[in-house]
Design brief:
One of its GO terms (molecular function) is ATP binding. InterPro entries: AAA+_ATPase (IPR003593), ABC_transp_ATP-bind (IPR050319), ABC_transporter-like_ATP-bd (IPR003439), ABC_transporter-like_CS (IPR017871), Oligopep_ABC_C (IPR013563), P-loop_NTPase (IPR027417). Belongs to the ABC transporter superfamily. Strand 10 and strand 11 form a beta hairpin. The chain contains ten helices and 13 strands. It has a domain of 159 residues: Rossmann fold (3-Layer(aba) Sandwich), CATH 3.40.50. It is an alpha/beta fold. Bound molecules: iron/sulfur cluster (SF4) and magnesium ion.
């Protein structure tokens, strides 16, 4: 995906004129086959909008998305359908994303029918096999979503996403609505499925310890922009952006900078309605200087595909 932009028009009050909200602002990223890219940031940073853009569930206002070199929006209807089959999504709330009037077997079987992947006679067996892969039982076939716990509903959502044999799954906060013990089960299931099917994931979450557990590479988002990205360990052990430092210092076990300093996030949480000029993080950044409120820092290479967008990255994070 290159230079993605998505703007929404919102009305904040019946008397105010509508305003433009730039949810995703010039994001470029790529995911290799079999790789997990974690996307992290506070709520409202544009992570979910980005996920939907990547799958073609929302049209971008600018930028391009391509898959194996083919633009997602180009080609015939049939070609686009084939492309879509390879890209699936798992949602945060598996209840609202599952049709309450459909039985589990029909929910999981639907993509198989849409993409004509199995003959009718083999449909039931294929659905049962998918249910087995995600830890559901054959007797669940004829039940409805509301008869299941949150964790089991997420298993149904995963089986449905798997049904079309995708190559990439976008998982948007797939465990954040679940109890802690159930979170671990679902995370482990996703890891097993990745190994078994060679899946690539875009794993969207605000919980950095979950992102660290799942990801090969990580992108940190703030107000619709990627402010830092790189290999997992580069981000967690050798971060080059104050916002990443702030997010990490909120997790005691991972800790802040090597010298033990900690950034506590202060000020208002970000809202894309009134994005600040210059560096989007400057109103909350403890290291901000004058230039930060006027000039937007660009993502620049820190080595081995590690990029950060901060005017003072070198000064702040040079550790000999
Ligand atoms: Fe902070 Fe300035 Fe760097 Fe932005 S550019 S993160 S405000 S030091
Ligand atoms: Mg979200």
């Amino acid at each position: 995906a290159t230079d993605l932009v998505k703007t929404f028009t919102v009305k904040t009050s019946p008397f105010a004129p509508p305003r433009q909200l730039r949810a995703v602002d010039g994001v470029t990223l790529r995911v290799a086959p079999g790789e997990t890219l974690g996307i992290a940031g506070e709520s409202g940073c544009g992570k979910s909008t980005l996920g939907k853009l990547l799958l073609g569930l929302l049209p971008p206002d600018g930028g391009t998305i391509s898959y194996n070199g083919q633009a997602l929006t180009a080609g015939s209807r049939r070609e686009r359908l084939t492309l879509r089959k390879n890209l699936q999504m798992i949602f945060q709330d598996p209840f609202s994303s599952l049709n309450p009037r459909m039985r589990v077997g029909d929910i999981i079987g639907e993509p198989l029918i849409i993409h004509q992947l199995v003959p009718k006679t083999a449909l039931r067996d294929q659905v049962l096999q998918l249910m087995g892969k995600v830890g559901l039982l054959p007797e669940h076939l004829h039940r409805y979503p509301h008869e299941f716990s949150g964790g089991q509903r997420q298993r149904i959502g995963i089986a449905r996403a798997l049904a079309a044999s995708p190559q990439l799954i976008v998982a948007d906060e797939p465990v954040s609505a679940l109890d802690l013990s159930i979170q671990a089960q679902i995370i482990n299931l996703l890891q097993e499925l990745k190994r078994e099917f060679g899946l690539a994931y875009i794993f969207i979450a605000h919980d950095l310890s979950v992102v660290r557990h799942m990801s090969d590479r990580v992108a940190i988002m703030y107000l619709g922009k990627i402010v830092e990205t790189g290999e997992r360990e580069a981000i967690f052990s050798n971060f080059r952006h104050p916002y990443t430092e702030a997010l990490l210092s909120a997790i005691p076990r991972i800790g802040g900078a090597a010298d033990g300093r900690r950034i506590i996030l202060q000020g208002d949480p970000p809202t894309p309605l009134n994005p600040p000029p210059g560096c989007p993080f400057h109103p909350r950044c403890p290291y901000a200087e004058q230039i930060c409120s006027t000039i937007v820092p660009q993502l620049t290479e820190k080595g081995h595909g590690h990029l950060a967008a901060c005017h003072f990255s070198e000064k702040l994070y040079s550790r000999g």
